[in-house]
């Protein structure tokens, strides 16, 4: 089980979410304003932050932006009544791991929390990933290959992180769309291929991220 921060100004919803997650065995902290939530998220290690968007003081989208900028590895589940497509896409592009609209089913909330926390050590924030000749700094969002540092924009960072957690394995485009962009459907665009090309340019060329015809991509580690 893990540690969760719930940032929600509606006391009824905050108490419901906290109770449900505690019943699942998680440790839960709460904050009722954007400023309180951001301070707590930056001061402690949370496996997941559940974040409302309509918060007093500092809006949730701004909290998300500032949090991901400082802690790009932090997983955030946005829980909001502002659930139209434009808002969902904006939050996912800003770095949210998932988005659940209000009103919500408790069972779906629990399932999404478990999915996003799966494989994480409670309260632990891993700093580095290593795969072959590539090292990835999860906190500062940069990679180092053969002694050369490369700063990574958010999507390229998330893409490389996904590939490095599965070294040598072929990752399908559908898998990458789901984990890196939070999309459960194919937008019928070349968004994955474009991101791979940009990532290759920041690393050491196309040989590092190999295309597997009609399937997807894999990180070459030998």
In terms of topology, how is this protein built?
Blueprint: E1 3-7, H1 11-23, E2 27-31, H2 34-43, E3 48-51, H3 60-70, E4 76-80, H4 85-94, E5 98-101, H5 106-117, E6 128-131, E7 134-137, E8 142-145, E9 148-151, H6 154-164, E10 171-172, H7 173-180, H8 191-202, E11 209-212, E12 216-219
Parallel strand pairs: 1-2, 1-3, 3-4, 4-5
Antiparallel strand pairs: 6-7, 7-8, 8-9, 10-12, 11-12
Q: Using only CA atoms, what is the Rg? A: 18 Å
Query: What characterizes the major β-sheet?
Result: 5 strands, parallel
* Percentage of β-strand residues: 15-25%
**Order of SSEs, N→C?**
EHEHEHEHEHEEEEHEHHEE
Shape: globular
For the biggest β-sheet, the strand order reads 2-1-3-4-5
Q: What's the total helix number?
A: 8
Secondary-structure class = alpha/beta
Please state the average pLDDT score: 87
Give unreliable regions as ranges: 121-125
Distance between the termini: 35 Å
Number of strand elements: 12
Helix content range of the residues, please? 25-40%
């Amino acid at each position: 089980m893990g540690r969760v921060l719930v940032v929600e100004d509606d006391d009824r919803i905050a108490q419901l979410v906290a109770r449900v997650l505690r019943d699942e065995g998680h440790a839960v902290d709460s904050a009722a304003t954007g400023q309180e939530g951001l301070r707590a998220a930056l001061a402690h290690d949370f496996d997941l932050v559940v974040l409302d968007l309509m918060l007093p003081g500092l809006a949730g989208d701004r909290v998300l932006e500032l949090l991901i900028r400082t802690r790009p590895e932090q997983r955030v589940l946005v829980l909001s009544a502002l659930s139209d497509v434009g808002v969902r896409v904006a939050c996912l592009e800003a770095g949210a791991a998932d988005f659940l609209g209000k009103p919500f089913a408790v069972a779906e909330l629990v399932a999404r929390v478990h999915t996003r926390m799966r494989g994480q050590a409670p309260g632990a924030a891993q700093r580095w990933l290593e795969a072959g000749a590539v090292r990835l700094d999860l906190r500062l969002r940069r990679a180092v290959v053969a002694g050369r540092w490369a700063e990574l924009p958010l999507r390229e960072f998330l893409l490389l992180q996904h590939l490095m957690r599965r070294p040598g394995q072929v990752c399908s485009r559908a898998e990458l769309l789901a984990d890196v962009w939070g999309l459960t459907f194919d937008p019928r665009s070349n968004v994955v291929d474009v991101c791979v090309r940009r990532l290759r340019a920041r690393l050491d060329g196309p040989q590092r991220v190999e295309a597997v015809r009609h399937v997807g991509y894999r990180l070459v580690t030998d």
